Amino acid sequence: MREISEKAYAKLNISLDVMDGRDDGYHDMMMVMQTVSLWDDVRLTLNSEGKMSASSNLRFIPGDERNLAVKAAVRFFRELGDEQSGVHVDMQKRIPVGAGMAGGSADAAAVLRGLNKLFDRPFSLEKLMELGADVGSDVPFCVMGGTALAEGRGEILSPLPPMPRCSFLICKPEFSISTPELFRKLDASPMRRHPDTQGIIQALEKGELIQICRRMYNVFEDVDDRRMRSVAEIKGALLDNGALSAMMTGTGSAVFGVFDDDSAAQKGLEAMKSYCPFSCLAEPVSIEN
Ligand code: C5P
User: Fold this and answer.
1) Helices in 136-178 by DSSP H: which ranges?
2) CB 282 within 8 A of CB 170
3) Nearest 5°: phi and psi at 38?
4) In the prediction, which pLDDT does 117 show?
5) pLDDT of 289 above 80
6) Alpha-helical segments (H) within the chain
7) For the chain, what are the domain ranges?
8) Distance, CA 25 to ligand 1 centroid (Å)?
9) Is the CB of 8 under 6 A from ligand 1?
10) 185 lines ligand 1 (CB under 6 A)
11) Could you give the CA distance from residue 196 to residue 161 in angstroms, rounded to a whole number?
């Protein structure tokens, strides 16, 4: 087999807490993460000249090793000890870029999963996640998918019971936010509020959506940055339109609301389209590996 297609699912943070800065420039985190039914289509085509490249429907996305998908391919073949094989990765991108939805990491994870299938599964899921950690902090979760607690810099993962049935209304404003910049600003501002991560885990165990919603929070929302005012406005609009709770995902700029009622979510979508150029509905999904 020379070709394979994989879905690269986006993630949302159900909670995001930052514990400590570390000596290696990263931060220790505690996050509940969820893969959702919004995906990029990733098509892998093998070659035997050791060539690595990428293309996509978005012109500004690099086609070389600056692209996490190419980085993941290089890491995979290095671990395999195969210098002859290469791959072209073509991505049909739907996950908004610069949204905090791990779009680039999801593509990288899809490359690792797809290559592992094309080569008859030389690596276990754990090993693929380890390779993913060398590519980016969110890649191991994107390899695993489903609902999980992420600790360390995001690569220490514990599976959690699945998110109860719900709809996410996701809104990405036009601006994007740089991840390292927001981490720097977080270090300079006091954290006033934290999510109740343990409470969310207990609520997941009981399947209680309302209790999860009450405890969700992202500490980045408190950072002193004028863009957080727009985030707060979008959250307010989501709540006004019937969301049980609303939160920014990752380092933004996407914000999402949680709905237990499909028709309310659909109505909310129509209303939010005037606020955000990118608005869509998605549901929790798990990944078949
Ligand atoms: O691992 P990744 O390349 O995705 O991280 C991008 C940047 O985000 C890092 O260089 C660092 O500035 C910041 N980061 C962090 N702590 C984490 C994850 C990312 O400070 N746990």
Assistant:
1) 139-144
2) yes
3) -130, 120
4) 97
5) no
6) 68-80, 103-118, 125-135, 139-144, 179-188, 197-206, 209-215, 227-240, 262-272
7) 3-159, 167-282
8) 8
9) no
10) no
11) 17
Is 11 a catalytic site residue?
Answer: yes
138 part of the active site: yes
Distance CA(11)–CA(35), nearest Å, equals: 4
Ligand 1 atom nearest 105 alpha carbon: 4
Q: What is the pLDDT of residue 275?
A: 83
By alpha-carbon position, which residue is closest to atom 10 of ligand 1? Answer: 180
Q: What CATH number does domain 3-159 carry, 2.30.130.10, 3.30.43.10, 3.30.230.10, 3.40.1190.10?
A: 3.30.230.10
- Selecting among 17, 40, 107, 138, the annotated active-site residue is 138
Instruction: Check if 71 has its Cβ closer than 6 Å to any atom of ligand 1.
Output: no
Amino acid, single-letter form, for residue 184: R
Backbone angles phi, psi at 73, to 5 degrees: -65, -45
Q: Looking at the DSSP assignment, which residues form a beta bridge with residue 148?
A: 33, 159
Per-residue pLDDT of 227-276, as tens digits, reads: 999 999 999 999 999 999 999 999 999 999 999 999 999 999 999 998 89
**Over 80: is that where the pLDDT of 18 sits?**
yes
Q: What is the pTM of this model?
A: 0.96
The tokens for 227 are: 């863009």
Any idea what DSSP says for residue 160? -
CATH T-level fold of 167-282: Alpha-Beta Plaits (3.30.70)
Question: Which residues are CB-neighbours of 149 under 8 A, at least 6 positions away?
Answer: 30, 31, 32, 33, 157, 158, 160, 197, 201
Residue from 17, 31, 137 to probe ligand 1 pocket by mutation (most atoms less than 8 Å from CB)? 137
